[in-house]
Structure formats: structure tokens, C-alpha cells
Amino acid sequence: MNSVVAVNIVRFVLLVLAQVLIFNTLGFLGYINPMVYVVFFYWYPIKGNRALFMLIAFLLGFIIDVFSDTLALHAIASLTVAYARPVIMRFCFGINYEFQNFSFKNTTKVQRVTFLGLVVLLHHVVFFSLEILSLSHLLLILKRVFAVGMVTLILCVLFSSLFSPPSE
Amino acid sequence: MQRIINFILHYRNAFLYGFLALFSLIITVRSHSYHQSKFFNSSKWLTGNVYQTGAKISSYFGLKEENQRLVKENEQLRRMLFNIKTSNAQTLDTASIDFEVMSAQLVKNSFASPRNYLTLDRGKKDSVTQDMGVITTKGILGIVENVSNNFATVQSVLNTKSNINAKIKNTNYFGSLVWNAEDYRIVQLVDIPRLVPLVVGDTIVTGAMSSIFPENIPIGVIKKYDLNTSKSFYNIDVELFNDMANVKNVYLIKNKNQDEVKTLESITLDE
Questions:
Q1: Which label site among A91, A128, B166, B219 has the fewest CB atoms less than 10 Å from its CB?
Q2: Cβ contacts of residue A96 below 8 Å, gap of 6+?
Q3: What CA–CA distance (Å, rounded) separates B233 from B235?
Q4: Residue A68 is nearest to which of B17, B37, B110, comparing CB atoms?
Q5: In the CATH scheme, what is the homologous superfamily, with its name and number, of domain B45-83+93-159+246-256?
Q6: Predicted-assembly ipTM surpassing the 0.85 threshold
Q7: pLDDT tens digits, one per residue of B215-244
Q8: What is the chain B residue with the closest CA to A140?
């Protein structure tokens, strides 16, 4: 149990540092800064206190907000993803994710990519609609959600297969 | 009572979500119209030091380019110095100058979001204060917003809240410089009246109406212009001289008369 906590703390810190020092400065094509810390919501243990998960997600987003001077945008997007994660999991992996012996090992690649894709989509939709906060810029919002979301998804899939979670 | 408590316990996650979401929503909406938060910004000790450590490492990769840029600027300044018309000692006396200049380095750059803030490695210890102007060798960059002991955040010109007085070079037609958040190379100049003759390629510089920047600091050139919906003012797209994605060394400008101008303006407004 302790090793799970330690692993998640290390992940938390490393993802914050990677996000603010590397991925926030990319500026690919002028506006694409992929938000790779979203992969945290894929790695976080499935069983466990949901309220604690939401608080940690909020904290993760808030710290990144303070670093990038976008107060509370990352926080609200992460919080929403954390709140909606059980629903997305049920949609992607079916009802059996609630069983005791469920792990990502028993799922197919397609299921995992769909799961990551939905998480990234939800996160980016919340993030960019609140960042721009104007219906007259709907096209700009969609463009950013799509472009940044694609890059984030590719990076998240790479990250999740590079550092696969320890078998529990 | 029991049922109410049970209800709350049953939906505790939803309540937690609602509470935290409302909290962040309020700060988000506030950040769209008001100033940046005083307590949570990247000029603070932890964030500033993390960024500075990162900047110390990455600054080695651009040393050669940065050197060339500074030598170019020195060359330009020397040319101005040698060709200066008045050379009497009185005009060069430091007691009579209006603007003070201080160098600084950027530890965090940002240009992809609609509200960009930059972080500098100078703070209260170097007597940086709010509302100092920030420029680079090529043109204007932004205005200091929050200051901590060792760091300062700057509201970039690439910020939808930014509004800077600007004019067309060698004329006195001035307007406001704003940004529509679409392209980090292009800002918009609005409120230039229709009767002004414009040419694509005209230079835009800072105006004299601001107590932050000195007059005639370069901004960019006119890329494209058209009339706004009321057909009485121009909307001008200005291509910035500065490459906002690649900024390292900057200068802070302090207007010594700023306090006097501000007090005078506030007195005038009150009456």
C-alpha cells in the first residue's frame, strides 16, 4: 500500500515538473502545448477513495495553474475528469471494471486508447471553453480542442505504454 | 434530519465536486476581467525558483544567438551616440532623466494562451514595482503586474486584457493596442480614425499618452487594415517586431514621473 502512495507522489511531482518546464514551453505551431499530466488520471489506482482522488486531481491542476498563471483552468478541468472517470471507465471497459481482479492488463489496446481519448477530450473541452469563454470564438475553441487534444493523446498513449503501471 | 444527512452522505462526491468546481469557476471568471491573483502567481518563491533552475539550464543553448543580438544592439546604440547632435553635459546629467532602465532575464515565457504572463528574475530586491514597462532590443513586451522578492510577472502584449497606447510613427494619430488571441505574431491597433492615411508597412510605435512607456518605442509594422463595423475607425493588424516565442534578455523601464502623473490624474478625475 505504501509503495502505491509513494509511486503516486513521485508521479505527481514529475508530471508537474514535466508539464511546466517542458510541455508548457513547446509552442508547437504557435499554440500547441500538450497537457500530458492528464495521463495521471489513467495511472491513478482504480479502487480507492473517490473524494481523495478528486482532491488530488484538483491540487494537481491548481499547482499547474499557479505555475502557468492560468488560475483555476487546469484545476477545474482536472477536477471534472476525476469526477467523471468512473462513468468513462464503465463506458470503455464495461461493468467488469468494478470487479476485484480488474486491471488494465485484461483490457485491449483499443479500450485503453478510447479511455485516454475520452479523458483528454473531456479535459480539453472544459479547459479551452473556459479559457476562451466566448461563444463567438466557438471555431477557435474547437480548433484548439482538436489540435492540442490530438497531440496530448499521442503523447499520453506513448507515456502510458513506456511507463506501464506496476502489476498490483 | 436523518434523511437529510443520509442524502448528503450519499451524494458527498457530487457535493465535493460542486463546491470545488464553483470555487475554481469563480476564480476563472474573475481572471477574465480583473487583475491577476496577488497570492497565486508564478512570481512566488517556489514557482520562480523552479522556473529559474529550468531557465539556467536552457539558456546555454541560445548563448551564441543572444550574444549576436546584443552586439547588434550595441552597434545600433553606438551609431546613435556618435551621431547625437547635442553633447552638452546638462542633457546627460542623471538627475534630470525621466526614465530609468534595468536589465532582466526571462525565466518563463508564454504565448499560446489568450492571457499570457511572463516571469522575470528581478523583484522587489532590485526595486521593481508594478506598472513598469518591459521591452526587448526589438520592441515592446509588456507591463509588470505582480512583484515578489526575487521575481516579477509581466502581463504580455499577447494578453486579451492588455491595452497599450500606440501611434503611427511620425504622426500624432494614436489608438489602442489590443490582442484577439489568434496569432502570437500579430496584434491589433484599434481606434485610429478613418481620415488617417494608412499604408501597409507603416511602423507603429508607442504613444505619448502612456505613463509607462517612453514615446517612440517600436512595436511593429502594419500588415493589413480595414474599417470596423461602424465604418468610422480602422482595425489594423500589426505584425510585431519581437519574436514573442524567442525572448531572453529584456529591459525594465521606470518612469520617474509616473507617480506624479497618476496622482494628478486621480485628483482631476475626483473633481
A1: A91
A2: A102
A3: 7
A4: B110
A5: Rod shape-determining protein MreC, domain 1 (2.40.10.340)
A6: no
A7: 888 999 999 888 877 888 888 999 999 888
A8: B182
